[in-house]
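[step 3/7] fold_predict: job queued, chain A
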Amino acid sequence: MTELIDYEHFCGTNVIADTSAGVPEIEVDELAELREKGGDFDLVDVRETHEFEIAKLEPSINIPMSDFSSRLHELDSSRDILVICKNGQRSTKACKMLHTAGFRKIKHVEGGFEAWAEEVDESFPIY
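[step 4/7] structure written:
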């Protein structure tokens, strides 16, 4: 080795900023407003079941990322689908999968539950 490497690139730590490219998103404050107004949408939580049991927003549908590709048929492509996870990484991936499967009315919740706890509901448990 004769020179330093780009550590962020090598370790993939800069991937978080790039993963949401091209994926429509919604901010947590917009989600809070939609929920308050009784918006008509499906909130899909892609965290694993044990995470979902710690804390969740109602109503929501839990389809863990580990099962997501095999359970896409459970979702209605004619409805607005908002996808959420702990910090936005898994929801971005899930939205890309939905888009590939033909879903078009999809958005991922930017920052996920970490942003929700910071900006909307400080009592929401973060683990």
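[step 5/7] annotate
The radius of gyration is 16 Å.
DSSP finds six helices and five strands in the chain.
exit 0
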